[in-house]
């Protein structure tokens, strides 16, 4: 089982929610949990996710005047960051195909940052940020579809490639 080096939230799922989410998503939410920080955002998670007509609400961002949500859309069971600027027309940012691939992508990101960049395995980050960005992108694309390039991960790859983070 994967273990995060940060605050992690575990979920309690009703039998109905387990059936809707499927075995893999349920397993990862109950036994693996999700870290408080996902890419750029920190979340406060609900112990029991909230089911509505179109999505499952897992948590809300911390520190925002108008909190945004981490959701699983029912139509595709993928994970999204939901911007709530307009309540009638929210926008969604794709984070992962399912809970499992999101968790794997977060571990890859953690590995690249904490094990390679901080120890300068590929040289100093300042001089080799493009190498680190390419490696991160390739490793995540090994487990995730190209759809990830249009979401928050795509922004992270580009910012790393440019050396701004």
Q: If you had to describe this structure to a student in words, what would you say it looks like?
A:
Helices cover 39% and strands 24% of the residues. α3 packs antiparallel against α4 and α4 (125-141) packs antiparallel against α5. A 6-stranded antiparallel β-sheet has the order 3-4-5-6-7-8. The model has no long low-confidence stretch (mean pLDDT 90). It has 165 residues and is of the alpha+beta class. The chain has helices at 15-21, 23-32, 99-117, 125-141, 152-162, and strands at 8-9, 34-35, 37-38, 41-51, 55-61, 69-73, 79-83, 91-96. It starts with 7 loop residues before the first strand and ends with a helix.
Short description:
The protein has 165 residues and is an alpha+beta fold. The protein is globular and about 50 Å long.
